[in-house]
Amino acid sequence: MFPITRMRRLRASRFQPLVRETELDVKDLICPVFVDETIREPVEINSMPGYFRFPLDMVADEAVCISELGIPALILFGIPQEKDEAGTHAHGDDDIIQKAIRAIKSEADEPIIITDLCLCEYTSHGHCGVVGSTHEVLNDPTLEILGKTAVSHAKAGADIVAPSGMMDGMVGAIRRALDDNDFRDLPIMSYAAKYCSAFYGPFREAAGSGYSFGDRSSYQMDPGNSDEAIREVALDIEEGADIIMIKPALPYLDIIYRVKKKFGMPTAAYHVSGEYAMIKAAARNGWIDEPRVVYESLLSIKRAGADMVLTYFAKDMAKTNL
After folding, report:
1. Gap between the terminal Cα atoms of the chain
2. Confidence check: pLDDT of 218 > 90
3. Which of 47, 115, 152, 318 counts the highest number of beta carbons within 10 A?
4. Which residues, 6+ apart, have CB-to-CB distance to 127 below 8 Å?
5. Contact 183, 154 (CB under 8 A)
6. Catalytic residue among 247, 280, 302, 315, which?
7. Which residues are CB-contacts of 180 (< 8 A; sequence separation ≥ 6)?
8. Amino acid 90: pLDDT
9. Which amino acids are annotated as binding site, given as ranges?
10. Who contacts 304 (Cβ-Cβ below 8 Å, separation ≥6)?
11. Other residues' Cβ atoms within 10 Å of the Cβ of residue 125
12. Catalytic: 247?
C-alpha cells in the first residue's frame, strides 16, 4: 500500500525498457498488397488514403520495398481482368495471383508470400463461394474450387495459403488438396473467426469485391458471438490449420485473447480496412496524432495475444524504426 508501494517508481523513462510487458516489432507485421490486372499505373484507393492497387509489372518492386523495410511477409489480393459466377480466374495457372507470385519470386526470395484464398474477388456476384439458383451460397461445391485454387497458388510458389471464405470444411479440403499434390509442407493460415463486420467497407472498393445481392451473414460470424469463435477455431485446428486468424482486430480483442489462451496456436489478427480508414480520416482532420494512435492500436492487438498483425499501416510503422 502507498506510501510503501509507489507504482510510478518504474515509470521513469530509463526503467521502462526493463519492465515493458508487450513489444511491437516490425517482424510482427504482415503487409497487404493488391495487384490489379486491369491497370497500368498504381491507383490510390479512395476510401483508404495513401494505399494503392498495383499493376502486375510493379508488384515485385512493391514486394522488394516491403522486404527492405524489414517486414517479413505480405499477403496478396488479386483483381482479375474478368469475373464469372464460378470464380474461374481464381485458379488458372496464368491468372493474376499466380502471375504475381512468380513475378515476386523472380526478383527476391523475401518476403514470405501469403495468398488470400477466397472467391469474392473473382466472382461476378461478389460472394465467397458458388451461388445456387435461389441466391444461396453453396458450401460443399465451393470446397473443390478452393482446393484447386490453393494448389495453383502452391505451384506458382506461394509460401502460405490463407483461406478466408468461412466455408465449413474449407481447411480440411485445402489440406487434402495440397497433400495430394505433394505440398504437404505448405502451411495454412486460416481466417478461422471472421466476423460479418461493417469494418470491411473500404476493402470492397480496394479489391473490387462488393456483393450484388444479400450480405455475407450466412457464412461470416455474428458480431455478438464469442463461444462460436472458439468452436470455429477448434474445427480449423482439427482440420489442419497451422496459423489461425481473427478478423477484424480491434472490435474483437476479447476473441484474440480467448483464442490465444485456449489454444496456444500461432495467432494472427487482421487490422482491417475500416480501422485504417477511420484513423486516416481522424488524422487528416487534425483530431489525433496518427503515428501514436497506430502504434497504440497495433500494440493493443499484440497485448491481446496476437503473434502477428496484418495491417495497412505495416510500411508506415516500419519506417518509424520500431
Report:
1. 36
2. no
3. 115
4. 119, 120, 137, 211, 214, 216
5. yes
6. 247
7. none
8. 93
9. 118, 120, 128, 204, 216, 232, 273, 312
10. 253, 254, 256, 257, 260, 269
11. 20
12. yes
Half-sphere exposure of 177 (CA within 13 A, CB side): 22
d(CA 215, CA 232): 20
Question: Which segments are annotated as binding site for 5-aminolevulinate?
Answer: 204, 216, 273, 312
Binding-site residues for Mg(2+): 232
Which residues, in sequence order, are CB contacts of 186 under 8 Å at separation 6+? 154, 158, 159, 160, 161, 178
> Which of 236, 222, 85, 98 has its CA nearest to residue 167?
236
Domains and CATH numbers, the chain: 18-318 (3.20.20.70)
Query: Is residue 277 predicted with pLDDT exceeding 80?
Result: yes
What DSSP letter does each residue of 88-145 carry, written as one string?
GGGS-TTSHHHHHHHHHHHH-S-SEEEEEE-STTTBTT--SSEE-TTSPEEHHHHHHH
* Bridge partner residues of 34 (DSSP): 53, 77
Q: Which helix (H) or strand (E) holds 282?
A: helix 273-284
Q: Which of 194, 260, 280, 315 is catalytic?
A: 194
* 230 contacts: CB under 8 Å, gap ≥ 6: 258, 259, 262
Give the phi and the psi of residue 244 in degrees, each rounded to 5.
-115, 150
What is the pTM (predicted TM-score) of this model?
Answer: 0.95
- Grid coordinates belonging to 126: 461478389
The residue behind cell 506510501 is 3
- The predicted structure's pLDDT at residue 15: 95
CA 24 to the chain's CA centroid: 18
Cell 470491411 belongs to 200
Q: Is 138 exposed, middle or buried (0-12, 13-18, 19+ CB in 10 A)?
A: middle
CA-to-CA distance for 95 and 102, rounded, in angstroms?
11
Q: Is the pLDDT of residue 113 over 80?
A: yes
- Residue 16 backbone phi and psi in degrees, to 5: -55, -40
Query: Residue 173 has what pLDDT?
Result: 97
Binding residues for Zn(2+) are 118, 120, 128
User: How many CB atoms are located within 10 Å of the residue 47 CB?
Assistant: 17
